[in-house]
Amino acid sequence: MEWVNETLVREFVFLGFSSLAGLQRLLFVVFLLVYLFTLGTNAVIIFNIVLDRALHTPMYFFLAVLSCSETCYTFVIVPKMLVDLLAQKKTISFLGCAIQMFTFLFLGCFHSFLLAAMGYDRYVAICNPLRYTVLMGHGVCVGLVAAACFCGFTVAQIITSMVFHLPFHSSNQLHHFFCDISPVLKVASHHTHFCQIVIITLCALVLVIPLLLILVSYVHIISAILQFPSTLGRYKAFSTCASHLIVVIVHYGCASFIYLRIKSNYSSSQDALISVSYTILTPLFNPVVYSLRNKEFKSALQRVVGRTISLPQH
């Protein structure tokens, strides 16, 4: 009962870019351009997949869902960050902070499990091509996405509830630009060792389980590809997996660096810099990797653009 007379924290103050006060307008312009380009490229991917029947396959269904997820993920963090770069008072309400944490955790966890589903899709396509349409029917694809949603929602609900049931009576200054787990835990009046262990364990499970599933899928994929008789066939099979592998490496690399070390020897500014990479740059990187490296996607985009241009002439 020592803290009964202390003031409850009703809002948090972001200090993520406070050390770069002279560069905040420049950062605003750069991040705004990157954000708009990310929204544009993801919109192109989604509309292209929806409008071209040749892309109505499980692989592109998952890609469309991934693009929607990326768009929502950036929407949770980037607009608020852009406003704060120009604002004198960089604050967020206690409830707003909880909602932001829950939403980005839900989408981040969903992203991890969705990448595992995409790995399974590549495994079936290469290792069991004759049964691909049966094993990866529309119902199965929707079921995998629903399972990823359920896992993401459950983990986000548990972590957010644990964090925001802690007492906040002292500092309200977050050395970050959004309500991430580690900076919010640091300003809690106190938290138990059990709470931290549970959070780290859940973060590890969200990263390790999907990653293990992806690794198992690719062990089978590589062994199957090596048995292909022609070099061209092996090249085509590897190329269909390359984009997914690149996205997996970037996603799990950044996420592991941040969330598998709640207590770290790294400075808050270093954490904020890494967070910029996976909240702003990675969502930009993913659609570019999938669209620019994919001849089938580019051909479909040309058809969609061609049909769109020819419509006014009829």
TrEMBL record:
CDD domains: 7tmA_OR10A-like. GO terms for cellular component: plasma membrane. It comes from the Eukaryota. Keywords: Cell membrane, G-protein coupled receptor, Glycoprotein, Membrane, Olfaction, Receptor, Sensory transduction, Transducer, Transmembrane, Transmembrane helix. The keyword Transmembrane applies. One of its GO terms (molecular function) is olfactory receptor activity. The keyword Membrane applies. Signal peptide: none annotated. InterPro entries: GPCR_Rhodpsn (IPR000276), GPCR_Rhodpsn_7TM (IPR017452), Olfact_rcpt (IPR000725). Residues 41-290 form the G-protein coupled receptors family 1 profile domain. Pfam families: 7tm_4. It is a multi-pass membrane protein. The chain crosses the membrane at residues 26-47, 59-78, 98-120, 132-159, 197-226, 238-260, 272-292. It is found in: Cell membrane. Putative odorant or sperm cell receptor. Odorant receptor. This is Olfactory receptor 10K2. The gene is LOC102507053.
